[in-house]
Amino acid sequence: MDFIKLATMEQLLHFTHDHTLSLVHLQPASHDSENSDEEEEKEEGEEDDFVAEEKHVGKCKMCKEGIYSFHMSYYECKDCDDDYSLHKFCAEMPKTLQNHPSHDFHPYHNLTLSKGFFWIYSSDEWACSVCNLMRKNIFNYMCSICEINMDIICATMSQQKMDHPSHPHQLQRMSKELVSHCSACGEKHQGTFYQCTTCLWYSIHLDCALLPAKLLIQQHTDATFTHSHPLTLAYSFPEVDQKAKYNPRCRVCKKYFDCYLWLYKCDKCQYYAHINCATSKTEPFMSIFLHPGGGKTYKNFKDDDYPNLLHCPFPDESYNLLRHYFIKNKKEFITMIKEEEHGGEMLNHFSHQHPLILLDTHARQTSVLGNKSIVLHDPMKKIQVLCDACLKPITEMPYYKCSEISSCGFVLHEWCARLPSKIQDHPGHPEHVLVLVSKNPQRLMGLFFCYNCCLYGNSFAYGCAECEYYVDINCAFLPKEITHEAHPGHLLSRINASSADLSKKLCNSCRCYLEDCNIAFHCPSCDFYLDTECALLLPGMMRHKFDKHPFSLRYNPVENHSSDYFCEICEENFNPELWFYHCSSTCAQSMHPACAPLILECEQHVYAKYGRGVFEFVNVKFGGTVEIKGLHPHRLSFLQGIQSHGLCKVCTEELQYDMIFKCLECDEYALHCFCVYYSDNYVFN
Questions:
Q1: Interval 112-158: pLDDT, tens
Q2: How far is the CA of 5 from the CAs of 55, 580, 682, in angstroms?
Q3: pTM of the predicted structure, to 2 decimals
Q4: Which of 461, 436, 428, 466 is nearest to 447 (CA)?
Q5: Full domain range(s) for residue 553
Q6: Assuming Cys at both sites, which of 7, 109, 385, 471 could form a disulfide with 377, CB separation 3.0 to 4.6 Å?
Q7: Which residues contact 130 (CB under 8 A, 6 or more apart)?
Q8: What CATH number is associated with residue 575?
Q9: How far is CA 605 from the centre of its chain?
Q10: Is residue 314 included in any domain, yes or no?
Q11: For the chain, what is the domain count?
Q12: Each residue's pLDDT tens digit, 54-107
């Protein structure tokens, strides 16, 4: 607690000093920002840039212990240049103790105040007969007859009380130093405790009692952790308040809070820290600064050892794993295409019935394009151009487009057109060679389940038909190591999540269990995990037509944002402890990662119901029709289910948020995609 000195006219002539001592009263300073006129008058946006360290007056010359604000008053000499101060209770102790409460251990003789001692051990140290602690150069009460010493600390114990704002009752100093759990921090301490004589379970260590009401975390952690606002000491974090804030975790150690223990919190944004984490400068806390939103980081690898290391997240939606490898490993990545298949700018690709033309800025394409202009993906203008291989946006040239410009919209990234036809020794299926296919021939609409990211897709894939094992083309080239901005400086190694003991481990992005995925990335030095979809499918920047500003991927609550977080797309509140996209400009809009992709077919009915880290159908291209013989007379369109589609005609469950088939002629007949699998009599195109 900070405090204010109030001078009074009370004087004391004390035998320990030549000058008159003046009584000074200490009044704790108010830190109630809610009732402070000064806080209310601050201009919006004005920041507190400095918080003073907690100070104490000095040490008492009689007991050599500190004088703190909770002592309420003390004596000091106004005439000495050197600080000379005494606790009020020390200064007012009589020279002789007779029938004193602290004299119960030796009621036969009077005890005399002295600086003498018995039982010298070494260097003028002596043992107190009450607490058995070694003392040096402090006053004591002694019985010269029995050669007994009682230090002045034990003699004044009954007067050493504390009125602390954390508790409604007065706290009494405990008579002996001990090892006990502190009710403030929950940790075991050794030393001086203050206990409530009414609530015997409540006791706090002196160190916690002296914690400042406000602090800047960088001043107390050697700048290992930083936050732009002062943190305020709170004496509890009620469960109902934690639930309202989605059970936030400490920004230092990433552990949850006990509702009865003290913490430091920011009044301007959702920043919380355990009191030990916010004030520790010791080595154990220096080993946990690698959590997202933490402090300084130290690299555990050399760049020269990893020249092609993938740094995540990708800059934007247009960048993906295939593009990264195409740029870094162009010679090894490009398939050997025969001259007759690749004549200049024309390409005969196995996945398409028409020749493809390479579109760039060359004028000689005019003969093919005619009067048609080259179109690129632009969500701000509702123009969608997605690669038919990876289903990622095409935002720049060159890229391949079907030469039948007027009748066919088939397009491929340059790197997707040059994929190798086979890959060997894939970490998820090393037993067999995986072959490149444009669609899964064994499933309706070419759908397959990717055994790496655990998402459904109908794009290009690498598969083993014998084992029905498929991975999308991005997951086919998973690196052994990556780095991620959310956990900077440390390598994240690829692990087989299905075989590792990860039954209780959560992805640090979406907080989903890793046992639900097959491949994940793990920092061996820390308890940090990312599933593949959060690590590789969430770009660092996203553009959306609902806002003219770009949205940045955030890993922690935003500074200067104390209100609840609200997704602008699905209009639901969300937990800012999970990753999200946020516009840092004046509009300050936010959205779920699963709501962020602009999928034009279903932009008003996005998937955020189950809290996955990415849009569930990010690898699915909707469209096309299917004829189901024996179930419905009309062809059915492949769509994403929305609320207005109602219930499935087969299983009677809701269609919203699922892949469905719907009759556009009847407008009332729809069923789940997987319910169609119950019928063996279907044809599709």
A1: 888 766 555 556 788 888 888 888 888 988 887 877 888 899 988 88
A2: 13, 48, 88
A3: 0.77
A4: 461
A5: 541-602
A6: 385
A7: 102, 105, 150, 151, 154, 175
A8: 3.30.60
A9: 28
A10: no
A11: 6
A12: 456 789 999 999 998 888 889 999 998 888 999 999 999 998 887 655 556 667
